[in-house]
Amino acid sequence: MEEEKEVEKKELELFLSEKARAHNMSAKKIAELSGIPLKHVEHLLSGRYESLPPAPYLHGYLTRLGTLLEFDGEVWWGKLKEDGALVGSGPEDRLPENRFARMRMPRYLWAIAGAVILIFYFILRGSFILGTPTLTVMTPQDIATTASTNQVTIRGKTEHADTVRVNGEPASMTPDGFFEALILLEPGVNTVEITAAKFLGREKKAVYQIVYEPPLQSTSTAKEEEEPGTLEINL
Known about the structure:
Blueprint lengths: L1 H8 L2 H11 L4 H8 L3 H9 L8 H15 L3 H11 L23 H24 L3 E6 L4 E4 L3 E9 L3 E4 L2 E2 L1 E2 L4 E7 L3 E10 L5 E10 L23
Parallel strand pairs: 2-9
Antiparallel strand pairs: 1-3, 3-7, 4-5, 4-8, 6-7, 8-9
Helix pairs in contact: 3-4, 5-6
């Protein structure tokens, strides 16, 4: 390529000076437009490579100057490496990390952080998730009681329970834990089992005995009607 042949015949400082004059740009103007510090632009134009920053920076400078002054910076980068004019920054020769840039956390650290959060969550909320709910029965008030009707409403309140069942049937429950259920009684002793349970936890049960005594039916004695008597007439 013609540009590669030109590179072989010239030194970088002479080449850059010619490009700067062709574009009517001073060192200060080049620094302003390229973002390269002025002192480094002056070092490049004067050939003071020993005063330039390490190779990775110089590579970036040549790329920006190539875009600004219309030449292939990679060609000059290759020539400088062949001539041994580069100042190395270390075995890996790469740009230093930006200490203000946001660092990406390795995946295993995310996993550890997630596990720690879960552990603390279960420590704080474990009793709520896996613990035993509370159960307070308001009606009936006594464990053993009697009823004169065949229908009784069971009422109460629970905390930390997901469901409340009365004799195996779900009771209606408000968000604050109040529940109620209507049950039908058979004459005699009725066992009522109330269970408050959590989805992943334990259960709380209460057993009540309700004796249903149907009211006695009133009996009335029917009055016997007298049959009309027979009137005998003797002539």
